[in-house]
Automatic annotation (TrEMBL):
This is D-galactose/methyl-galactoside binding periplasmic protein MglB. PANTHER family: D-GALACTOSE_METHYL-GALACTOSIDE BINDING PERIPLASMIC PROTEIN MGLB, D-XYLOSE-BINDING PERIPLASMIC PROTEIN. GO terms for cellular component: outer membrane-bounded periplasmic space. It comes from Clostridium intestinale DSM 6191. The keyword Calcium applies.
Length: 351
């Protein structure tokens, strides 16, 4: 009797098993069993940052495209730390406890990566930092830490070159008061951000190297933000008026904020030249119509692609050696490109 029961139970299991596996095929004939989940967690320092939202959207698009032609279900879970490191640490903790395959971090404070790294490391979950570069000491804490960013020196130098070219083609276009010097102001990003420090240092280099005298009227922190830049520019207009010849802005959002102040002003006879960095769509429009003299494209499409490729490889075979441009086994740094009225159409088309 007992034996009979066992046999019938066994048959039942086999029947259920067979019928289950019979439904285990997709319409296209692929076995559902072979479809695995890839879970990628992404935490942003601020989702309302124009550049960061551009790179994130691209990351989601690339993932969707890849999912369509792979045997994986790819989940990208994006969360906003809203400028708080405490929020970000708990978001990373949650990704770890929910067993994500890879965690991508746009870190709030680049000097404070150690806690989240230790969490991810203890669960053996690789981390890809992007756009905000943790200090080297932290990047050395583990061999499954990566960084995707861009060569900040280049972006500063492109700004300087744009002004230099304008000066060479028509001095009075830049040196409005004809005193042989360029009077300039700098709108700086967040203090401590690698791009702020490096861009500010490099934007004047091409001019200095070409023997052009410069006079810095002022530099102010605008924290990458449009509204803060408008406020600073309004103050400068009051303080320096027509004296300002160039506005170097560490990013486009602040350049656009400065433009707003300039457009609402009727005391300055000739506007200063405004140059930005990023190449976000709105700034390209301003370059096209001549309100901005130029910008440097911070290639978010490329950076998003690299972040995704790395995350995908790390979640599947774990080997990222095929990633192009990988330096020291962990860094990928994108090139910037110069944009002025002369070539802006190319970039407007590709947006
Ligand atoms: C971009 C800025 C952005 C910042 C955020 C920079 O690389 O140029 O527009 O606000 O990163 O971290
Ligand atoms: Ca001058």
């Amino acid at each position: 009797m007992k034996i009979l029961k066992k046999i019938s139970l066994c048959l039942l299991t086999v029947t259920i098993g067979t019928s289950l596996s019979a439904c285990n095929y997709n319409n296209n004939g692929t076995n559902k069993d072979s479809i695995k989940n890839i879970k990628i967690g992404v935490t942003l320092y601020r989702q309302d940052d124009a550049f960061i939202s551009a790179i994130t959207k691209e990351l989601e698009d690339v993932a969707k495209e890849k999912e369509g032609d792979s045997n994986y279900k790819i989940t990208i879970n994006v969360v906003d730390a809203k400028g708080s490191l405490t929020n970000q640490n708990s978001q990373v903790e949650r990704f770890v406890s929910q067993n994500y395959d890879v965690i991508c971090v746009n870190i709030v404070d680049r000097t404070a990566a150690s806690m989240m790294i230790d969490k991810a490391k203890s669960a053996n979950i690789p981390m890809i930092f992007f756009n905000r570069e943790p200090v080297e000491e932290d990047m050395e804490r583990w061999d499954k830490l990566y960084y995707v960013g861009a060569k900040a020196e280049q972006s500063g130098e492109i700004q300087g070159k744009i002004i230099l070219d304008a000066y060479k083609s028509n001095r009075s276009l830049v040196d409005k008061n004809g005193d042989g010097k360029i009077q300039y102001v700098v709108l700086e990003g967040e203090p401590g951000h690698q791009d702020t420090l490096i861009r500010t240092e490099h934007c004047i280099k091409p001019l200095i190297e070409n023997g052009i005298e410069l006079e810095k009227l002022s530099d102010e922190i605008g924290n990458w933000q449009y509204a803060q830049a408008t406020t600073k520019m309004n103050q400068w207009i009051k303080e320096f008026g027509d004296k300002i010849e160039v506005v170097f802005s560490n990013n486009d959002e602040m350049a656009l904020g400065a433009l707003e102040a300039l457009n609402n002003d009727n005391t300055i006879k000739r506007h200063p030249l405004v140059v930005g960095i990023d190449g976000i769509p709105e700034s390209l429009t301003q370059v096209k119509n001549g309100a901005m003299i130029g910008t440097a494209i911070n290639d978010y499409k490329y950076q998003a692609k690299v972040i995704f490729n790395m995350a995908y490889l790390l979640s599947t075979n774990g080997d990222i050696s095929s990633v192009e441009g990988l330096e020291k086994g962990k860094y990928v740094m994108a090139d910037y490109s110069e944009v002025t009225k002369d070539n802006v159409d190319i970039y407007m088309k590709s947006k």
